[in-house]
Design a protein that fits this description.
The structure holds two protein chains of two kinds.
Chain A: E1 4-7, E2 10-14, E3 19-25, E4 31-37, E5 43-49, E6 52-56, E7 59-64, E8 69-74, E9 83-90, E10 98-100, E11 104-109
Parallel strand pairs in A: 2-11
Antiparallel strand pairs in A: 1-3, 3-8, 4-5, 4-9, 6-7, 7-8, 9-10, 9-11
Chain B: E1 4-6, E2 10-13, E3 19-25, E4 31-38, E5 42-51, E6 54-57, E7 64-70, E8 73-78, E9 87-95, E10 100-103, E11 107-111
Parallel strand pairs in B: 2-11
Antiparallel strand pairs in B: 1-3, 3-8, 4-5, 4-9, 5-6, 7-8, 9-10, 9-11
The chains are: A mainly beta, B mainly beta.
């Protein structure tokens, strides 16, 4: 079973700072997902990655398959980015189950 | 946009009660999932379903059962609620073409 670890567990930063959240996993995967969970509970899917890099607005996600590592970056952070960011991996094609990290709680101070 | 709706945001039940958590999706997805989320443990899979009347146990099925009588609805049942089932419960559905997951807004269940 894949072990998914995120770092840091908690991150507090000033508005405008560049944010990096890391995710590593132990077993080869077919895809990695980055999710965002705001207070109140609902989860939103941000990215699905199999290789390389994806960008959406101020969010950038990268993955290094050889290193079994992914990063989520937020440029020009804003208080509305405050949320829990969760990394999840899918191990093989045709396997729909995800294994989740425990999340990184990000707080952006105005 | 796919919508996954969970019937209750907050629920308080007594120990021993039978509890039904309902989840409905509007995009004809075959795959649906029930997770629970606890501090420090992340999301853990309770059950999933890959078609009507088809189900498979996840990592922590003990004390739970599920029902999928119609494609759009996946119900989680706590046969006899216990205090250790106090948790946030999240439902999700999967688009098999894009492998995109859509989550509901969660039900925070407290068992007293």
């Amino acid at each position: 079973k894949n072990e998914v670890e995120q770092s840091p567990q908690n991150l507090t930063a000033q508005e405008g700072e560049f944010i990096t959240i890391n995710c590593s996993y132990s077993v080869g995967i077919s895809a990695l997902h980055w999710l965002q969970q705001h207070p109140g509970g609902g989860i939103v899917s941000l990215f699905m990655l199999s290789s390389g890099k994806k960008k959406h607005g101020r969010l950038i996600a990268t993955i290094n398959i050889q290193e079994k590592h992914s990063s989520l970056h937020i440029t020009a952070s804003h208080p509305r980015d405050s949320a829990v960011y969760i990394c999840a991996v899918r191990e093989s094609f045709g396997n729909e189950k995800l294994t989740f990290g425990t999340g990184t709680r990000l707080t952006i101070i105005p | 946009d796919v919508k996954v709706t969970q019937s209750s945001r907050y629920l308080v039940k007594r120990t021993g009660e039978k509890v039904f958590l309902e989840c409905v999706q509007d995009m004809d997805h075959e795959n649906m999932f029930w997770y629970r989320q606890d501090p420090g443990l992340g999301l853990r899979l309770i059950y999933f379903s890959y078609d009507v009347k088809m189900k498979e146990k996840g990592d922590i099925p003990e004390g739970y059962s599920v029902s999928r009588e119609k494609k759009e609805r996946f119900s989680l049942i706590l046969e006899s609620a216990s205090t250790n089932q106090t948790s946030m419960y999240l439902c999700a559905s999967l688009d098999r073409e894009s492998y995109g997951y859509t989550f509901g807004s969660g039900t925070r269940l407290t068992v007293v």
